[in-house]
Write a structure and sequence with these properties.
The chain is an alpha+beta fold. The chain has one domain. It has eleven helices and twelve strands. The strands form three sheets. Strands 5, 6, 9, 10, 11 and 12 form a six-stranded antiparallel β-sheet that branches. It starts with 17 loop residues before the first helix and ends with a helix. Bound molecules: the ligand C=CC1=C(C)c2cc3[nH]c(cc4nc(cc5[nH]c(cc1n2)c(C)c5CCC(=O)O)C(CCC(=O)O)=C4C)c(C)c3C=C and fe (ii) ion (FE2). The site of fe (ii) ion has 2 residues, from helix 9. GO terms for molecular function: ferrochelatase activity; heme binding; metal ion binding; peroxidase activity. Its cofactor is heme b.
Length: 434
């Protein structure tokens, strides 16, 4: 019982079977260490063996079944086909932490994030009975689920605390107050953000939890959001999902595989004086509560006028099929067919000087309001863009005129600079501090 098998993956281990093999090795190791198996994972053997026996093969452009490449020109989790689940968290750097602490943590996070996206446990010394396990264990036996872990930095990280003021990306300033904002600081901002997306909610949660564990003493968690259903497609291959208002959402989103569109609207380019930030993007998060009790009492015709689309098919009110181009000039009886205050009219690139963003949001729920009994939930809106001004312009128009405003409230907000992808051997600490 004193011998604990080494479950750390060999550096050159690769190939389609890697993730499943690694999880199986964790199982084997735990199985061999009876005390650990009993204490930490219980009767996990049978469960793990069950999960390990199958693979959906739903690979999303990664290096193995259900894996997405961690390194590359851009971070994963932006152009990546939207996974089904989200765990999003923000953190502030703790009062006593130094720049060296932060840099070291970002290096540790890089290794952990890379391992987890490959379906491996957080690297460490598993089976050591005298230290807490490096990996918390709840993803053992699960498939990697196309996990992506995307990091972002808030404007406050570039204040005077860590010597980063000279490296602040030029667009990274707190978003201004926007029309109809009703923001709660408890759902807003943060020095850093982590977006973990996966097709399995436990895999996404496990990723954030383990990064949080590694950050003990350096970062303080600020807020966290779980997303239970994607509300966008980021490739035409994906079926368009429905949001909690029952409408298809993401029909006219940017196609993440369209390099020209991504370059024009999403990736930070040569216009950015901070060279290190080029190839990155800006992430805007908005927690948007839907007033579902009001929406559910609204008649179908009005619901369709709010968006400018048919609820059943997702087609524009001027068309027949979902992907028909909306005709914003069409009139009937002197009135616009797509009303003047319809959501898609106000948000469409045709009516905003060609401006576009990549939407990558999720439905969320916070349960039931204990005082009113109302459902608390809505859209955790996430969008990527090359300049925050794109969001500011759109939201200024929507906040003033959108018919949807009767049924929603913006209750949380964040702006983060998402650095570009990591090259081989590079880590987030070196990339940020230079
Ligand atoms: C500031 C940007 C946007 C916010 C905030 C926003 C909130 C929001 N949207 C929906 C539902 C739908 N949005 C749709 C289209 C759409 N929305 C935005 C931007 C924001 N939405 C854009 C740029 C577009 C594309 C417009 C176009 O080019 O036609 C649609 C229609 C289907 C689609 O194309 O995706 C729906 C439905 C909700 C429920 C919501 C806040 C809760
Ligand atoms: Fe929208």
């Amino acid at each position: 019982m004193t011998d604990t098998p080494d479950i750390t993956p060999a550096p050159d281990e690769a190939g389609p079977e890697r993730a499943a093999v690694s999880r199986r090795r964790l199982l084997g190791a735990v199985g061999a260490g009876a005390a650990v198996a009993g204490a930490a994972l219980g009767a996990g053997g049978a469960v793990l063996a069950h999960h390990d026996s199958g693979s959906s093969g739903a690979d999303a452009a990664g290096s193995g079944p259900q894996t997405v490449a961690f390194r590359g020109v851009h971070q994963a989790g932006i152009a990546t086909p939207s996974q089904d689940r989200l765990c999003f968290a923000t953190f502030d750097v703790g009062p006593g932490a130094t720049a060296a602490d932060l840099r070291e943590l970002l290096k540790t996070w890089t290794a952990a994030a890379e391992a987890m996206t490959l379906g491996n446990p957080v690297p460490g010394n598993p089976g050591d009975l005298y230290t807490p396990p490096e990996d918390t264990g709840e993803a053992a036996g699960l498939q990697p689920g196309n996990l992506t872990i995307t990091i972002g930095y808030g404007p406050t990280l570039f204040d005077r605390r860590f010597g980063l003021a000279g490296r602040r990306p030029s667009g990274l300033v707190k978003l201004p107050h926007l029309p109809k904002d009703n923001l709660d600081p408890a759902n807003s901002d943060g020095d850093l953000c982590v977006q973990a997306c996966a097709d399995d909610p436990q895999v996404a949660f496990h990723a954030v939890r383990n990064l949080r564990r590694l950050a003990f003493g350096t970062l303080v968690p600020r807020w966290m959001e779980l997303g239970f259903g994607r509300t966008s497609s980021t490739t035409p291959q994906q079926a368009t999902p429905r949001n909690l208002m029952g409408f298809k959402d993401g029909t006219r989103n940017i196609d993440g595989t369209d390099a020209a569109l991504m370059g024009a609207h999403v990736w930070i380019g040569d216009e950015e004086p901070q060279r290190w930030a080029r190839g990155g993007s800006y992430l805007v998060s908005r927690k948007i509560r839907m007033l579902m009790e009001q929406w559910d009492r609204d008649r179908l015709g009005d619901q369709q006028d709010v968006f400018g689309r048919f609820k059943s098919t997702g087609a524009p009110l001027t068309g027949k099929a979902e992907f028909d181009t909306p005709d914003f000039h069409a009139k009937s009886g002197g009135q616009y067919v797509i009303p003047a205050d319809a959501h898609i009219r106000l948000a469409a690139h045709e009516n905003n000087n060609g401006l576009r963003i990549l939407r990558r949001g999720y439905s969320y729920t916070d349960g039931i309001d204990p005082e009113t009994g109302d459902l608390m939930g809505g859209l955790f809106f996430i969008a990527f863009m090359k300049s925050p001004q794109q969001f500011i312009t759109l939201q200024t128009a929507l906040g003033q005129h959108d018919a949807l405003n009767e049924y929603i409230q913006h209750i949380g907000s964040g702006l983060f600079a998402v650095p570009p992808g990591l090259a081989a051997g590079q880590d987030w600490g070196t990339q940020l501090f230079g």
